[in-house]
Amino acid sequence: MKNIRYICLLLCVLGLVLVSEGVAQIDKKASKETKALYKNLRKISRSNILFGHQHATEYGHGWYGDANRSDVKSVTGSHPAVIGVDFSGLSGRPKEAIEKTKESLRKNIVDTYDRGGVTTVAWHFANPASKGGFYWVDSVSANAISLIKVGGTHHEQYKEILQTIGELAHSVKGKDGKLAPMLFRPFHEFDGDWFWWGKSHCSKEDFVSVWQFTVSYLRDSLGVHNFIYTFSPDNNFTTEAEFLERYPGDAYVDMVGMDNYGDFGRYGKYNLEAAAMKLKIVSDYALKVKKLAALTETGLESIPNTTWWTETLLKTLQTEKLRLAYVLVWRNDSRSPMHYYAPYPEHASVADFMKFYNAPYTLFEADLKKIYKRKFLGIL
C-alpha cells in the first residue's frame, strides 16, 4: 500500500513539473528573471490576480513626480503590484527629449523591479509617417503599418525606433545587477479605428507582418531578452475566432489579453455578462496554448459608482473560473479633476476599494515575495 501511495505521489509531482515546464514562452534566451516572472505569473493566476494601475508612481490626482508615491499606496499602504508605463515618448521628438524620457522610464522601471513589483508597457506610438500623433486623424494620418513593414518606405526608420527601445531594455539594471523584465504590449486596441494601426487603417496581413518583425527584431537582432510580449485587442469580439482575427501566431505572443472599458460602465452602460464571457474566451485560449492571460486595461473614469470595485470589477473577475495574471486600470491625471481611474484619499469609493484590496483574490505589491526567483515563495 505504501509503495502504491509513493508511486502516485511521484506521478503527481512529475505531472506538476511537466505542467510548469510546459509554459510556452517565445524567447528561448529570455533572462532567468524574465522566465521566472513568466512562470510565477502563471502560478499566481491559478488562484489570484495582480492589481495594476497605469503611471501609478509617475503622477496622480493633483501631484506629479513625488518619490515613492502612488494614489493607490496613499489609500492602501501598498503600491499596485503592476505599474504601467508608456513608450510613447521614445520617437517623434528631438533627441534630447527622447534621452530624457529614456532616463525617466529607466528609473521608474528599475525602482519597480527593486521593490519587487511588475512593469507593463503600453505604446502610444506617434505615427512615424505623418502628423496626427498616435490617434487616427482623417486627412492627416498616414496608413503607416504598410509603410513600416519590411520593404516599406519607412521600414529603416522603424528599425531605428526599435533600436531606441532596445537601448532602454538593455539599460534597466536593478540593484542586483539584473535586467528588469517588462510586459511589452505594442499596437493595443488594434480592433478599433481610433489608432493609426487600427483595423480599418491596415490589412490583416500587414499588421501580422509588422508584429512578427517587431518581436523578431527586438529579440533576435537587438538581443532584448527581458520582454514578455502581450497581445491585447479591445473588446470587439464575441468568439475565439474574432478574438484571434489578427493574431500573429503562438510563436510571437507570450500573453493574451483585452482592454475593456465598454462593458464595465463607460457612459453608464454595464454588460457584465458580456465582459465575463469575453474574459473567458481570453483565459481559455491562454490555457489551451499555455500562455498567460490578463485584463490589460479597464476602469471607470472618475469612479462615480462607489461600489464599482467589488460589485462590478471583482464580481466579474470571479464570475467564471478564469486564470488572469493581472488587471490594470487606467491613469490618474495630475491636472484634470475628472480624469482618474483609481481612488485617492477621501474619494467616495475608498471604502469599497479597501474591500477590493483586502479580498483574498487580489494581490498588490506588498503581497509579493520574490516574483523574479525560480524558487518563488508565493505571497506574504
Automatic annotation (TrEMBL):
Enzyme nomenclature, EC number: 3.2.1.78
Chain segments annotated as coiled-coil in the UniProt record: none
Subcellular location: Secreted
Active site (record annotation): E189, E297
Cross-referenced Pfam families: Glyco_hydro_26
Annotated GH26 domain residues: 32-366
Catalytic reaction equation(s): Random hydrolysis of (1->4)-beta-D-mannosidic linkages in mannans, galactomannans and glucomannans
Keyword Ribosomal protein: no
GO molecular function: hydrolase activity
UniProt KW keywords: Carbohydrate metabolism, Glycosidase, Hydrolase, Secreted
InterPro entries, per database record: GH, GH26_dom, Glyco_hydro_26, MANB/E
EC class of the enzyme, as a word: hydrolase
Family designation: Belongs to the glycosyl hydrolase 26 family.
Protein name: Mannan endo-1,4-beta-mannosidase
Organism, scientific name: Lacihabitans lacunae
